[in-house]
Specification:
heterotetramer; A mainly alpha (158); B mainly alpha (81); C mainly alpha (516); D mainly alpha (263); B: 81 residues; flat; D: 263 residues; mainly alpha; globular
Chain lengths: 158, 81, 516, 263
């Protein structure tokens, strides 16, 4: 059991959870009867994919993908030594010469992609909600089986 | 990234997803969906994706939930499942 | 100027949409000219692209000038494979814009600017998808086109249209998400998003290409695209969505959306995974061809059961998607199946446009929603009837039209690949089309009405029927229909030239992209 | 059990099985040398390029901002277009409910008269809160180069300030500050700003969105700073569109498209 946890589950834990979340979303999308519930399922489905992407860019013991632009750490260290001007010089030349070690910083590319995906998700949710309101106005219900019955019966007037 | 923290949030995430899908009151479902968004924002901050976390805090926990609440107010609060 | 063509293609409709958003609110008359001008710009740009590509090879465009290393910026690419498609999109977009000039204006006048800006943004999405060379960029543009098409479908006020649109939103989102997930798997395994770069990584590292994750990424991408193109088991959203929406929306969506998805599938197969990889195990391609066979037969049979013209055409689209997917997966040695399926993308766009335009005009002017309503209409509207007949003959596959030649190439591919079931399905489907359309001709020419009455769904009809103006002959609609039918015939007559272009494209691509 | 439930369970089990089957092949979670984070042999890693070189190229410390607005700026433009398209779609869909663009009868402002004490408390608190939120939103937009944030996040927060006005008093109070005509204009202008920066680069004979050539116009020292400043410009464009459309979506959804009364 412990071995299974160490070797199979732990290295891929995020990926397992992403599959579980995605399946919860997909199940709600197909099986739920209420349209709003379907939309919640759709959003969960989308966040699961975002979780997958963000998990791709994680590195062990890495920091956030923002550089220290003014070299504040070095600046402070230099200041403590009493060499302020030198510290300022250091600030100006920081990064310009020494590029950061890629292993210490999270991968920015999946983050960028997922910003776009989140935006797309909220746009889709907005459109879907507006269509749901239209459906409620037309059919007086948000339950799929009731709506289908009305459509089949063709009994409700416009 | 702290592994224990990661596991705790992920487990809560699954619980929040299941509850928001099983509550019969749509207003509560929308609010729990907001909580889900906030948890996932926490998860991303924890994984080092600060920009994504910021966006999710504004969108997932904020705008999405508000839009859903607006729709629930204009339609029906009760759901059959 | 020619090196800026890829940017112009997406920017002209984008600026058009913004100008409509700014100026159209005040004066609705400004909308149509702006839309037309921006679409004409793209038409000229795409024609320019065709000459440039033939003369000097593919146009590569790097957004922001980020060229090296490949993949840091966004890469757009026009090569001989997609340049024909660009022209086809531009032509269809211009024709439908001309068709729609009066249609939207008279009923929901306040929605005119919304319609035109959504329309132009849809064109932005379609052009962008076609020229995208970056897997993630493709996803963003698929979403642009999907969101606009949700709007275009749901903006009609029919009740079933909104329901269909809701289903379309759910299905479309699932499809796009699966595609996105597939791209994520690719990124996980290769570390790149650029299609060329991914392909060269596969060529250089066969162990990556043969891993489970890459195989699953292909399956996910394929499922995503199949949902978008309404391939057989996943076609549920299409018929209602396209038949209950406003005719102007149906006329732009039906000819283009599914065909662009087919193109995306072919593009992914050729330039990301490589045909050698895709066809490595014949079991899978046989499976897909069988699915296509079922799609063709099911689409045709369901079309036979329909009473409404548009719905019948929608089921025919399902069958046509089966043609194209099956053709692309035939995997014959000379790739005639793939050639036929690429040619059929163009042919099907032209003939679907023809039929939907005609159906739109019939619905508009004569309130003819059902097949029985067409009684005697061919005499009242001879020009529209002529366009409809040309489209129908192409659908059946009568020689001078393009439908015949596309079927010819597809059947040739089927025979060479020994997929006789596919050939038989094609022939059966042609037969069904013949039965369908000759029944319509009979009703429309001679007014022979089948004995059963159609009183029991008056109410449904009432909701479907758009406000009609018999006194307006709608010259714009008829003229764009006639131009479309001319294209159906021209595409048939000049099939040799088009197919030659496609063959050149395939040869170019297979040199870079095949058999590792 | 209902039929769709069975179908759903089968579909979910099959899809989940396929996905889990693929998971075992993945590189482990958090591995800095996985293909996504480093590179496969024989190709240059895109993500390492961003981490090591992007500050030299753009002088923006927040790597996400520089990748978002410059390297993949074309994607971001279409992300904004997606928002705009969603807004347009919602206007087109809900506009038919109650004739959204009919001239509204201008009513008197929200009356905080006697008897409605809770409303006075909520209204006043929110009124005090709104400027703070807006200043923070502007900070988020402007400071996206150095800290998490940027046009999209800032735009959403700015829209949230208008939504708070609408929630605390009523929709009309918010629409008086950002009316229907104006939010549509704002949205278009936002995208035009973004695309305008790109086209300006084309006019100066370079590729679309190649901000480096804007150096003579922006009067910066070096193309890197030109890129940095142009990124701020496009972020402002994104913020315009997002603010306008997010508020507009809320306004339409909360009032069923009539833009009256609201919640």
């Amino acid at each position: 059991m412990a071995e299974f946890f160490e070797q199979t589950l732990q290295p891929h834990f995020n990926f397992w959870i992403y599959v579980i979340l995605m399946m919860i979303g997909l199940w709600a999308l197909i099986a739920k009867n209420n349209l709003i519930k379907k939309l919640i399922g759709m959003s969960i489905f989308q966040t699961a994919i975002i979780l997958f992407y963000v998990s791709l860019g994680v590195k062990e013991d890495a920091t956030i993908p923002i550089l220290d632009p003014y070299g504040q750490a070095e600046h402070a260290a230099a200041e403590a030594e009493g060499a302020e001007t030198e510290g300022e010089k250091k600030r100006d030349s920081y990064i310009g010469k020494k590029s950061p070690d890629p292993d210490t910083m999270a991968n920015p590319l999946p983050h960028v992609l997922m910003l776009t995906a989140i935006v797309v998700g909220v746009a889709t949710l907005g459109v879907a909600l507006s269509i749901a309101q239209m459906i409620f106005k037309e059919f007086g219900s948000l339950e799929e089986d009731e709506i289908l019955e009305i459509v089949k019966g063709g009994s409700v007037d416009d | 990234m702290i592994f224990a923290f990661d596991i705790i949030i992920l487990v809560f995430l699954v619980i929040a997803a299941i509850i928001s899908l099983s509550v019969k009151d749509l207003l509560s479902a929308s609010m729990i969906f907001g909580i889900y968004g906030f948890l996932i924002c926490l998860l991303w901050a924890e994984m080092g994706a600060v920009d994504v976390a910021f966006t999710e805090a504004a969108v997932g926990a904020g705008i999405s939930a508000v839009l859903m609440v607006a729709t629930v107010f204009n339609t029906k609060r009760k759901s059959s499942d | 100027m020619t090196d800026q063509i890829p940017a112009i293609l997406v920017l002209a409709p984008l600026f058009g949409a913004m100008i409509i958003g700014l100026a159209g609110q005040k004066d609705h008359r400004a909308c149509f000219p702006v839309a037309l001008v921006s679409l004409l710009v793209t038409l000229f740009a795409s024609i320019g692209a065709i000459f440039t590509v033939i003369e000097s090879g593919p146009i590569d465009y790097f957004m922001g000038g980020w060229e090296k290393p490949l993949g840091i910026g966004i890469h757009l690419r026009i090569d001989s494979l997609n340049v024909i498609l660009l022209v086809a999109i531009a032509i269809v977009a211009v024709l439908v814009a001309i068709f729609s000039i009066r249609r939207i204006g008279d009923k929901n006048a306040e929605k005119t600017p919304h319609f035109y800006s959504l329309y132009l943004l849809l064109c932005v999405g379609l052009f962008g998808i076609t020229i995208a060379g970056d897997a993630f960029n493709l996803f963003v543009l698929v979403e642009v086109s999907s969101l606009t098409s949700y709007g275009l479908i749901a903006m009609g006020s029919s009740r079933r249209g909104t329901l269909a649109a809701f289903n379309y939103v759910l299905m479309g989102t699932v499809g796009a998400s699966f595609y996105l997930l597939g791209v994520g798997y690719l990124y996980l395994m290769t570390g790149s998003l650029n299609m060329q770069e991914i392909h060269s990584i596969f060529v250089a590292n066969p162990d990556i290409a043969s891993s489970k994750a890459v195989a699953i990424s292909f399956i996910l991408i394929l499922i995503g695209i199949w949902i978008k193109m309404a391939f057989f088991p996943l076609y549920g959203w299409l018929p209602n969505a396209y038949s209950y929406c406003p005719s102007s929306s149906a006329c732009i969506l039906a000819p283009l959306m599914t065909k662009i998805s087919v193109y995306v599938m072919i593009r992914v197969m050729i330039s990301v995974f490589g045909l050698g990889w895709v066809f490595a195990s014949p079991g899978y391609s046989n499976l897909v061809v069988w699915l296509a066979v079922i799609a063709i037969l099911a689409g045709s049979m369901l079309a036979l059961a329909q009473r409404e013209i548009k719905k019948m055409l929608c089921y025919l689209i399902v069958a046509e998607v089966g043609y194209m997917v099956g053709g692309a997966w035939l995997a014959d040695e000379q790739l005639w199946g793939l050639t036929g399926s690429l040619y059929h993308i163009l042919a099907d766009a032209a003939m679907t446009l023809c039929l939907f335009l005609a159906a739109g005009i019939f619905a508009k002017r004569f309130n003819a929603i059902e097949i029985d309503d067409l009684e005697g209409l061919f005499k009242k509207a001879p020009w529209t009837a002529a366009g409809f007949v040309v489209g129908a003959l192409a659908m059946i596959g009568v020689p001078p039209t393009c439908g015949f030649f596309s079927k010819f190439y597809l059947i040739r591919g089927g025979i060479e690949a020994n997929h006789w079931e596919y050939v038989i399905a094609l022939l059966i489907s042609s037969l069904v089309n013949a039965v369908l359309f000759f029944r319509i001709f009979e009703i429309a020419f001679f007014g022979v009405k089948p004995p059963e009455g159609h009183g029991h769904h008056e109410e449904e009809e009432a909701e479907l029927k758009e406000e009609h103006h018999p006194e307006i002959p709608n010259w714009t609609g008829t003229s764009s229909l006639l131009v479309a039918s001319a294209f159906v015939i021209l595409l048939g007559i000049f099939n040799g030239k088009v197919v030659e272009l496609i063959r050149v494209a395939l040869e170019d691509l297979t040199v870079v992209a095949q058999r590792f | 059990m209902r039929l769709p439930n069975m179908f759903a369970i089968i579909a979910v089990v099959i899809t989940g099985g396929i996905l889990l089957y693929g998971v075992s092949d993945f590189p482990s979670f958090g591995d800095p040398k996985s293909p996504a984070n480093a590179a496969v042999p024989g190709s240059e890693s895109v993500s390492q390029y961003f981490i090591t070189k992007s500050y030299k190229d753009t002088k923006v410390p927040n790597l996400v901002t520089s990748v978002l607005a410059d390297y993949r700026g074309y994607d971001t433009m279409f992300e904004t277009v997606v928002i705009f398209a969603a807004g347009m779609a919602i206007f087109a869909i809900l506009g038919s409910v109650g004739g959204g663009s009919q001239p509204r009868v201008q009513e008197e402002g929200p009356s905080f008269v006697d008897g409605d004490h809770s409303r006075i408390i909520v209204g006043t608190t929110c009124r005090l809160l709104v400027p703070v939120i807006q200043v923070f939103a502007l900070y988020v937009i402007g400071h996206g180069h150095y800290s998490p944030g940027g046009g999209f996040q800032g735009g959403v927060i700015l829209a949230a300030s208008f939504i708070i006005i609408a929630l605390s008093s009523d929709l009309d109070a918010a629409l008086r500050r950002l009316s229907e005509v104006n939010y549509l204009r704002l949205a278009c202008v936002g995208i035009l700003i973004y695309a305008g920066f790109g086209v300006l680069c084309q006019v100066l004979e370079s590729n679309f969105l190649d901000y480096g050539v804007l150096q003579p116009i922006l009067l910066t020292d070096g193309p890197e700073m030109a890129r940095s400043h142009s990124m701020l410009g496009v972020e402002i464009g994104v913020a315009f569109t997002v603010t306008a459309i997010m508020f507009a979506i809320y306004a339409n959804l909360s009032s069923r498209g009539t833009l009256r009364d609201g919640l």
